[in-house]
Amino acid sequence: MNFSLILGLAAAGLILLLMIGFILAYNRLQRLSVKVEEAASGIDVALEKRWDLLNELLSAVKKYLSHEYETLTGVAALRSGTETEIQRLKQQADVSAETLHSIDQEIDLQNQNMEKIRSQLDAQHGRGSSFRSRWEARSQNSRPAPDSQRQLRQADQNRNLAVSQKIDALTSLHRDLNSVTAGINALYEQYPLLNSWISLDQYQRAAFQAEEHLQAARRLYNSNVSLYNQTVRTIPWVLVASLCHMKEARFYEVEESKRNFEGNLD
């Protein structure tokens, strides 16, 4: 009788220890998963900062175009002289107007790209708010139920899927911003006259800082993903992750080429 009681108590103690271990392991995985989500939000903020910087540069170029058109019009109205001089001025004005028109078309194209990126950023913010609302609702409504574990696993799967989709969207945004940056860089290389009106020193410093911010956010995200994935693969967390259907997170990887903007001052 005493032996049966001791055996029962030992079994109950073992089950209790297993439950405590499961809870601790699950909570650790959840904390690591939240860190991955927070790091993804940091990339979102860095991309937003980079978008603002590119938008300011596009506005400066548009302002330059307006100034140059006014200058051409004013010079044509004030200048007078021989027929040769008038013809030379007309040819110069035509060349300048054609150049400005080409720049204007390129800037309009980049503005359209920026509007698309702005819509994607807004959509990302909307999805983030929607996800937080669902997470808060789940936390507030967490009550014992027959299928509570199944609902919890499903919620975790949905959250992991949402993070994966967010990384896909952010990668696409990063690629689009690189494309806009490359387009602006091509403008400065093709039309050196932009350098004479717009000072690139300040922009280059700001662009470098924005890129450093983005790289820091990327490193932080990948570091958290690495720690999370290592934990998910090791015992005993791999057992908990398997039971809760928690999969490895994706690293944030983008094309390395054309990442930095470098103004051609020659």
From TrEMBL:
<protein>
    <submittedName>
        <fullName>LemA family protein</fullName>
    </submittedName>
</protein>
<feature type="compositionally biased region" description="Polar residues">
    <location>
        <begin position="138"/>
        <end position="158"/>
    </location>
</feature>
<feature type="region of interest" description="Disordered">
    <location>
        <begin position="122"/>
        <end position="158"/>
    </location>
</feature>
<keyword id="KW-0472">Membrane</keyword>
<dbReference type="InterPro" id="IPR023353">
    <property type="entry name" value="LemA-like_dom_sf"/>
</dbReference>
<keyword id="KW-1133">Transmembrane helix</keyword>
<dbReference type="InterPro" id="IPR007156">
    <property type="entry name" value="MamQ_LemA"/>
</dbReference>
<keyword id="KW-0812">Transmembrane</keyword>
<dbReference type="GO" id="GO:0016020">
    <property type="term" value="C:membrane"/>
</dbReference>
<dbReference type="Pfam" id="PF04011">
    <property type="entry name" value="LemA"/>
</dbReference>
<comment type="similarity">
    <text>Belongs to the LemA family.</text>
</comment>
<feature type="transmembrane region" description="Helical">
    <location>
        <begin position="6"/>
        <end position="26"/>
    </location>
</feature>
